[in-house]
Each structure stands twice: as structure tokens, then as C-alpha cells.
Amino acid sequence: GRLKPTGGIIKTGELTIGYFDQHREMLDDNLNLIETFCPHGGDRVDVMGQDYHVYGYLKNFLFPREFLDKKVGVLSGGEKNRVALALLFTKKVDCLILDEPTNDLDIPTINILEEKLQNFPGAVILVSHDRYFVDKIAKKLFIFKGDGTIEESYKPYSEYLEDEKEFAEIEAMEGEFSKTQIVPKAPVTEKQKVLKLTFNEQKALEKLPIEIEELEAKIDELNASLADPKKYEKIGITVLAEELEKIKTLYEKKVDELLSIEEKVEEIEALKNA
What we know:
alpha/beta
């Protein structure tokens, strides 16, 4: 049947689709939060077959009780995003379509979104440049190759990108090899003869994998705390979010350092085998 947008919900035949694209069409700035979630009165809301008090449901989206009487129009952009997400998950839909859902969302809200999507009983179709988010949510990838073909993959997104990088490097090496096949082998330079890891690089090669694993565990721990109201209310959302950003920055730095050393190891091995 023909698609009929109805403010965050699309109905086509027997299929009902919910979508979220940061535009928040389903919200009315003139309504407060209770009116938004209970348009027919009362203070209860049905969420995928479970009955909640509206405050009990909204506190999972980081809204304190005093927000219940606030008009949607006075909320910040980030707060409206959280309202739109919370409202979307009260709709009875078979499929969710999400267009860059993590754009402009803070870390606590992203964690809430991830939890809700992982527990969503229907299908989820999403477009995102957030590698960490895609790794956690996507079970299947559709890769648009740019030449009219679409490749399917069941690998985690990060693993797919790493494999593509390796394939590209192999193709580049094969291309260079074919060009230099008839070229006489160049003499080994003094620099090539003495190329080796420094003492600090050798130590880093031993320590970095352990440090990276510890940082990954810390990231998972902080994400779990940001998804647990008891923990983030006790410690503070801002404190947890700032610590998570700091740990992620350190994690990326350690990963880059390890990759750089591993590339040097590969170069040394290549010279030995040349």
C-alpha cells in the first residue's frame, strides 16, 4: 500500500513502522509531558504490553518528576530528542527505521537508545556513521558499494572495515609487485639493515594489548552505570559521561599507538624476507 506518514509512524498494508530522524514530528510543543504520553487522560502508559506510571517510564529517559508538567516547547533540543525516543517506544510497531539516531544525543541518551533497541522485539533498520553504535546494534550490514551493487555481511561493522582495509592494502601491494617484477632488486640500504623496534616500542608492544583490554572493560562498566538509574543518580550523569569521554579518548590513543608499532613490525618482517 501507499506510505502514509502520521507523525513518526508509517502504515503500509499490515505493517506498522516507527521512524526517528531527529526532526521530532510526533511532538506538540503546546502539550506537557503527561499530556504527550497520556493524550486520553490518566497517568498510565502502555509500553510494548507493559503498564507503567508515566513518571516511572520517563525516569528511564532521565526525566525527573518536576518535568511532567513542563511544556514540550520549553525543553532543550536534547530533552526533546529524549521525549521523542521515549514516545516512539510506546508505539506498537513492527519495524523501526532510524536515520543517524545518535546525532546530537548525549552519551546517557545513546546508552538508553541502545538498551531499548537491543530489547525491541521487531526489526530495526538504521543508518549511522557511529561505528561503536552500529557494532552494538546491527546484526546484518548492507554495504552500498557505489557502483549500484549492495553487499551483505554478518560481520561486526568494525571487523568489516578492518577487513576492507586489509583487502585494499593487499591489492595495492599486488599492484606494486606487478609493476616492479621486471625491475632489478634494489640494494638494501643501511637504514633497512638496522631497522628494528626500540626498547620502548618493544615494551609497549607487550603492555598495550593488556591496557587496551582494561580500557574496553572500563568503557563497558561506565556504559552500564549510565544505563542504571541507581548508579547514575548516585554518582552523577555528568561525572560518568565526562569520565567515559576521557577513557574513550585514551582508548583511541592506545589503539593508534599499537597499530603504529604493529605496522613497523610488519615492515621489519618484510625486510627480513626480502
